[in-house]
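pasting glucose-6-phosphate isomerase for the record, 186 residues
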Amino acid sequence: MNLKTRLPRQLDLASGQFIAADHHEHTTTAGMLAGLYADRDAWAALPPETPIYTVAILPAPQQEGELLAGVTHLHPGRVGREFYMTRGHVHQRREQAEYYIGLQGHGLLLLQQAGDCVLEHVFPGSVHYIPPFTAHRLINTGSSLLSALAVWPAVAGHDYQALQEQGFGVRVMADGDGWRAEVQHA
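structre below
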């Protein structure tokens, strides 16, 4: 028998940054989010290169039984009265679940399943279970970067198109120093 010792990849829990040379990062800018925000004029006024969020993902084989881990870093800001948010998605394989863990900042996780919506507060140390068949989106209602670690099955996939037509049933808008959920009617 051979025995090896190795240093694993690391995550700086305070900053949400991976300490691993082999992770991949992708930044989503305002220009990539056409049709996402209710106030289309406010969105059009944003420079298209404005970063909204970055996702860092550790590599893993894309096969049954494997897990992926990634950190979403969502900037603070608003488009009109609506807070910066991720595009949101359901999994291509709808039966796959996911976990989010809040690392820094404050915001909300919007969960939608079969027309029912739930908003969960995201903060350092919060743990969020995203059940199968559930659309989900992060929303930064704070004044600093919102970061959350996600762990999901490598075979789950992301389906952004499923939400293009109807979107989520709730929008989160600034309301004084806080926020308010506005139910969207079809």
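The longest strand covers residues 51-58.
The domain at 22-183 is CATH 2.60.120.10 (Jelly Rolls).
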